[in-house]
Design a protein that fits this description.
Chain lengths: 248, 248
């Protein structure tokens, strides 16, 4: 049993949830704001991190307006957000990823779970969004890992989930989250958070190096969006009815 | 209207199909044999190509036994198969891909459509099936393209469709085919063949270079299969109910 619930067998409601403090670095962007809304609606305290404390705070107010008064969302700097979050989601463009990891590095202690959501789209170097560049370490997530304390538990996920769809709270999620990590327990904990978002499923895609593929799938979806003039193509994995933690 | 049907608006049955001669290079392998069965069942003449004429011929007989006497399947060498096919599918392991393209090169004239189904799995160099290597030209399909006459119309597809599922004729296909090509008409023609396989859908993933991503998704599926101890994970694309040719 990971964190996040008092009674894993019980129904999922705010009454049976352990409210976690969850940092969303880049929570003012499309993907990060969508995640903020979904995690806060699941009963957690979402802590938006931004380069500007003021922008973080304003965006948090916007989230509370959307979600209603019970929701707990706050906004602060990236550094303070990373420090307070029990789990830290990082949803920033690839061009700024390394700088942000260097900024939060001293605030992310060994043992903490960090979920990198970065895709190395070629837009980072003035290229096309349906092309990718190849990070030196293989993937953006692996590049991030080497910037943090070696004891940080790195997970890569959410590359193929549209920020637009995450923000549209009334619309059921249709696409699955690929979760990559070499730390099985960290992967299961992140999986539990994903399971708390209605209709969202997660698929164990293997160890962290599999992010080399999962991250590039964002660009393939952008190419599909472009071909069909749509905004929210996604992947659903076939072959099983139930995914989540393997062997469960 | 591409080749393959007399009346594109009519119901899809062998009566309304123009039987095409379709080459399946590597048709003795899992993926190629599955494609052979599906294309022959759709009413086409599938011409299995093999390094050994005898093996090609024996495998063709096996296909006819499975499909019944009406099916038209023949087997021959890779060279003769490539020469006779109006469309040429190439379903071979990456380790042998370049050699086979060199062998069929003089038999594939300008204007012919070639569908490369290769994924550059690391098994080609003694590595793991859930890892990939990076072809010099970006993708296996682009590497193949430069080995053929520049007028050949190269399409990349079928990387994420399990050979096992293709061979199981009674089981509806659950996963979608990503089709990559810089030749829109060639892409639509291959798409029409895909549409003739019951329940199989195709998604336009962009130009041929998008095979750099689509090919690696095979390895991600193998990683998922490995995590869940299954054999046939696949991708279904969400965001639209109908895919196929964009704008239609």
């Amino acid at each position: 049993m990971g964190p996040g619930r008092v009674d894993p067998a019980g129904p999922l409601s705010s009454a049976t949830l352990c409210r976690m403090d969850i940092s969303v670095i880049g929570g003012t962007g499309e993907e990060g704001f969508g995640l903020t809304l979904r995690l806060a609606r699941a009963g957690h305290h979402a802590i938006i991190g931004s380069r500007s404390e003021e922008k973080g705070s304003t965006t948090a107010q916007k989230a509370v307006e959307i979600l209603g008064g019970d929701a707990k969302v706050s906004g602060t700097t990236n550094e303070l957000s990373a420090e307070r979050g029990e789990v830290v989601f990082v949803t920033v463009p690839y061009a700024g990823q390394a700088d942000i990891y260097r900024a939060i590095k001293d605030h992310v202690v060994a043992g903490k779970i960090v979920v990198d959501c970065t895709s190395p789209l070629a837009t980072a170097v003035g290229g096309r969004a349906w092309h990718v560049i190849r990070p030196w370490h293989g993937s953006a997530a692996e590049a991030a890992k080497v910037l943090l304390d070696p004891g940080v538990r790195m997970v890569a996920a959410f590359h193929t989930i549209s920020g637009e769809q995450l923000q549209d709270l009334e619309r059921p999620m249709e696409s699955d989250v690929f979760v990559c990590s070499s730390d099985k327990e960290a992967k299961a904990t992140v999986g539990e958070l994903i399971d708390q978002i209605p209709n969202l499923r997660w698929v164990d895609a293997g160890d962290l190096s599999m992010a080399r593929i999962a991250e590039t799938m964002t660009a393939l979806l952008i190419s599909v969006n472009r071909a069909y003039k749509i905004h929210d193509a996604g992947f659903r994995v076939t072959g099983r009815d139930v995914w989540g933690r393997p062997g469960v």
